[in-house]
From TrEMBL:
<dbReference type="GO" id="GO:0008263">
    <property type="term" value="F:pyrimidine-specific mismatch base pair DNA N-glycosylase activity"/>
</dbReference>
<dbReference type="GO" id="GO:0004844">
    <property type="term" value="F:uracil DNA N-glycosylase activity"/>
</dbReference>
<dbReference type="Pfam" id="PF03167">
    <property type="entry name" value="UDG"/>
</dbReference>
<dbReference type="InterPro" id="IPR015637">
    <property type="entry name" value="MUG/TDG"/>
</dbReference>
<keyword id="KW-0227">DNA damage</keyword>
<dbReference type="InterPro" id="IPR005122">
    <property type="entry name" value="Uracil-DNA_glycosylase-like"/>
</dbReference>
<protein>
    <submittedName>
        <fullName>G/U mismatch-specific DNA glycosylase</fullName>
    </submittedName>
</protein>
<feature type="domain" description="Uracil-DNA glycosylase-like">
    <location>
        <begin position="6"/>
        <end position="151"/>
    </location>
</feature>
<keyword id="KW-0234">DNA repair</keyword>
<keyword id="KW-0378">Hydrolase</keyword>
<dbReference type="InterPro" id="IPR036895">
    <property type="entry name" value="Uracil-DNA_glycosylase-like_sf"/>
</dbReference>
<dbReference type="GO" id="GO:0006285">
    <property type="term" value="P:base-excision repair, AP site formation"/>
</dbReference>
Length: 175
């Protein structure tokens, strides 16, 4: 299986960071390509994108100010197949990418992704009070995987903090 391309450029509004590519993403070359993954639906319904994009349009997100990458580049069937060594190497590589590209927001698509990156055990949804990165806000969102048991409306509500911040520069009030 092959890794998939990052879609990154300097000064993006948001870089979305997943665990690693799925088998389906590896086969197609597109991020969040598994039909059970709700990433593209979540972006649209949270107000981040003007329409629901398809995985094969992932490069068009750059035009909207959004980028795509993963903490680990090796595709797997499930995130639990990722080794601690891969996370260590991925954390170092991701830190370099984020420092180089300096997005306004690094959105970690899954608490586990952020926990691996930040090495913090306890994190909350949304913007993080204490950032690891110097010039980038860190945002933790639920995984978009269809395996996540959280209600889709609750996931969308968390993601909807991002367009509010991008429009106003202010954070939503936490409940």
């Amino acid at each position: 299986m092959n890794p998939i391309l990052d879609y990154l450029k300097p000064n993006l509004d948001v870089i979305f960071i997943g665990f690693n590519p799925s088998v389906k993403s590896s086969e197609t070359g597109y991020h969040y390509a598994n039909p059970n993954n709700r990433f593209w639906k979540i972006l649209f319904e949270s107000g981040l994108t003007p329409r629901r994009f398809l995985p094969e349009e992932n490069e068009k997100l750059l035009e909207l100010g959004f980028g795509l990458t993963n903490i680990v580049s090796r595709p797997t069937k499930a995130a639990d197949e990722i080794t601690m060594e891969e996370y260590r190497e991925g954390r170092e590589e991701l830190f370099k990418k984020l420092k180089h590209y300096q997005p306004k927001v690094a959105c970690f698509v899954g608490k586990g992704v952020y926990q691996q990156f930040s090495e913090k055990k306890s994190v909350s949804w949304g913007f993080q009070d204490l950032s690891v990165l110097e010039h980038t806000k860190e945002f933790v969102a639920p995984s978009s995987s269809g395996l996540v048991r959280m209600k889709i409306d609750d996931i969308i509500e968390i993601y909807s903090e991002l367009p509010l911040y991008l429009k106003t520069g202010r954070f939503a009030h936490k409940k």
